[in-house]
Amino acid sequence: MSHYLSIYNLSHLLLIKLIYCIILQRSQALRITGTWSSRNNQFSILAKFGFQQIDPLDAEHSRGFVYGNVSSPIINGARGVLLIVPKTLVNGFLNKATLEQSCDSLLQNISSLAFEAECLSDGKDDVMRWIPCPAGKLCVEEDMPEKVINDSQMTLRIEEPSAPQYWYVIIVACYLDIHCLWKSSVKEVIVHYDLWLTNGSPLMHYLNPFGYQFSFEEQNSAEIYMLLFILYIVVGFCQWRSVMLCNSASFFPRHQLLNCIIVLKTFGLTLHCLNVITFSFDGQGILFARLLGEIARLMSTCLLCLLLILLSYGWSFGNSSEILLYPKVVIIWGLLTSAHFLLFFINFLHSRLLHTIIC
């Protein structure tokens, strides 16, 4: 049995290391930062975020906000556009033939949505900004500086009057010419971006400190994790008291397995709480804590399944029989658990933003 456990532990250590290396290379949550060049792609989808339905009694502060900085290290006259696109119009960017489409074909649906003073005056939504913005200055569309969030070059407000919806932050190497036609940028567009996406005004974040950084489907996740953490602390205390009240002779292997399940679950919830609380304030969270928390959660669930299977085979809490008496069960469980973690690893390895959007 010790041989099985040593191989099992080694495989999981290697798996954790690989997942850790992959996850650190992924984009950092809802504060999105990075550099984009039109040399590699005509457009890039930077983020997906679910904006909540506005509160009619406080529409100004319950809107979705996209704010931050988009500038360029070089000045070559190249111009692109940053768009905030609703899910209903994003399919045009997902088609494989999109890479061969002209800017006019790619953005024809956006023209009916976005407002631009010179060419798109019939648009109703303020969902586009010409990029890069002038270094150290506001974007050219920001004609009301008092409405721009401090230390930002742009601020866009998203209104969802009827229902929550996913929106996508997209950068495209296109511009409108003097005839108001979409054209591809001839020169290379290079931008550094640092953008925040929030539900509700950043100026009023203290009213909902554990919610405004989260997409609408993840609202209140911090409170849920903290509540579960408290409940497992109570369960852990009850289990500890039951162990203390029993003498050492009656401390059977299934009690040890149950203790391991509770400890792993509590440890995982602790890390998840740390991640979501940090995320509530910086929009990024702690990816390493999130990873280890998920590993602990999966392991505790698998051990709970093992315990239930063994109990169904007659492995009661009232005798001292060892787990080695059920080698076939343990081997099959080990294979299924390894497959579970392998799928978990594959999910992180192959999960990219476009795959998430298509799903």
Automatic annotation (TrEMBL):
The chain crosses the membrane at residues 224-244, 256-277, 298-318, 330-349. Residues 1-29 form the signal peptide. Pfam families: GPR180-TMEM145_TM. The keyword Lyase does not apply. Residues 228-347 form the GPR180/TMEM145 transmembrane domain. Keywords: Membrane, Signal, Transmembrane, Transmembrane helix. It comes from the Eukaryota. InterPro entries: GPR180/TMEM145 (IPR047831), GPR180/TMEM145_TM (IPR019336). GO terms for biological process: G protein-coupled receptor signaling pathway; response to pheromone. This is Antigen. It comes from Onchocerca volvulus. The lineage of its organism: Eukaryota, Metazoa, Ecdysozoa, Nematoda, Chromadorea.
